Amino acid sequence: MSADYRRITRNGLWDQNIVFSQGLALCPLLAVTGTATNGLGMGLATTLVLVASGLTVALARSMILPEIRIPVFVLIIAAIVTLVDMGMNAWVHDLHKVLGLFIPLIVTNCAILGRAESFASKNAALPAAVDGLMMGLGFTLALIVLGACRELIGSGTLFSHAELLLGQGLAFLDITVIPDYRGFLIAILPPGGFLILGLLLAGKRLLDRRLATSTASAAVPAHSC
Amino acid sequence: MSGPVSGPHAHGAISLRQTMLLVMLALLPATLFGLSIYGWPAFNLLTVTIVASLLAEAVCLVIAGKPVGIYLKDGSAILTGWLLAMTLPPWAPWWIGVCGALIAIVLGKQVFGGIGQNLFNPAMVARVALLIAFPLEMTTFVAPKPLFTESAPDFVQSLAITFGGGMHIDAVSSATTLGFVKTELGRHNPLDGALSQVFDLLNGFTGFMPGSMGETSAMLVLLGGLFLLYRRIISWHIPVAMIASITLLAGVFHTLSPEHFTGPLVHLLSGATLLGAFFIATDLVTSPVTARGQIIFGAGCGVLVYVIRSWANYPEGVAFAVMLMNALTPLIDHYVRPRVYGRDRKGQPLVYKGESWERDSEASR
Fold first, then answer.
1. Reported pTM
2. Contact at CB, A191 and B133, closer than 8 angstroms
3. pLDDT tens for each residue of B33-54
4. Is there a contact between B178 and B316 (Cβ–Cβ < 8 Å)?
5. Which of A186, B140, B224, B277 could crosslink B133 through cysteines, CB 3.0-4.6 Å?
6. CATH of the domain at B104
């Protein structure tokens, strides 16, 4: 299979977006997106794991017997997640404290095993790494969008405590959009996460439909899944 | 089974619009009483909530491409807004009513596909969301200040209260019976002596006490409920099962430990018990179809109301209880089905006395 990097990029970011199209990884998504900063941190950590696990699985794929591939994938992913967890604890300790349990729990993120099984185990190393990167960035995008919506509606700020993740240099991202906001608490609580995710999914469907009808005149076939 | 079943179907003469109008008529006495004792701010809130409901409904209908006029005229949006306003603190600011109406109509009703499609009672969805999102505003109640008395705000002052955020909360706030009970228990005070400070049987019955706009008057809500029963808009199963289960539980626990649990009358006459039993739990869309199912549903609501009031963090639990049972309604309807004519409850053909029938039914098993 020759690698089509445009296709891979498009799939990862939009057409097969882990959250908005596949509906995977909702547990970390809903758990950490109280603020956009947390979403960004979680998304970058997951992206790192996706790239590393995609690369490793693709390199090792000729050595892995099909019968035991799942346990091997899980071992590889677990090892990488442990490294990322330790690394974040060492270098971005404050963010690590906020995200807490959800970093080690990346190992149970079904999207990562899903990419290992459905893409990395059938492709060469470079396309697998690019796929991991694009899927990871797509996931990060979803986390940031959902986190930003919940943070904006819930507490009227954007990227609060950005310095935890990015250092003092990027503290300017921390914006109070609505001063003296009373807060709409439910948006930050789990029900608000579900509600806003539902609205975002509906919005993406609507957008896709609009795009499909506007390009229908050019006789472009509908994208396959 | 596929396709429509031909058979002797009776046509119900009453239209949706008539049903909604009759429910509004039944709500009217309790509403007028609420407006008269809580004054102009309550009137403003009711108006704002209903107008916002209608606007939200109209916008959703336009987006969904449905005929706006027909659906608006059925009165369901007005009723949703009205019921929601009945359960709000009467002096709440205007944006509570607007937020509530948007949540009720958009998230509670229209995203499911509009009237008849919703899983949860829209007014209760909004009430629960507001309670979680704005705990302070949703638990600030005022003592009754009847219209045209010295203490009541006039119309201009009421505009400041509803729209200006000019309410001096500490000056007017007053605890509801259930809120008071929760606070006293939190301080480990025995109930029997303390309760007489806030609860009085006569006021509980007539409704002259702090509380949500339309829930306080047990007498008038009961009157409306009996009217609905008389006009056969609702059947007796849900209200009776709900009230009976609350009474039973409250009676048992009150007898066992009067210093920790209030008696059945307190539970029936305070909070939203009666409004919930007659007007909210009986919502035709979100309650089971069969009589047995409705009894299970009503009893479940009653048990949950009592459990939430007695052991959970919130002083009042009607909205939570009704929503939890709404979620179980499809399950109840799945398991509790009416007996099909000519068959027993398991769906087997009935066995009649006579040899040939018995042989047939044996063979079919």
1. 0.82
2. no
3. 999 888 888 999 999 999 999 9
4. yes
5. A186
6. 1.10.3430
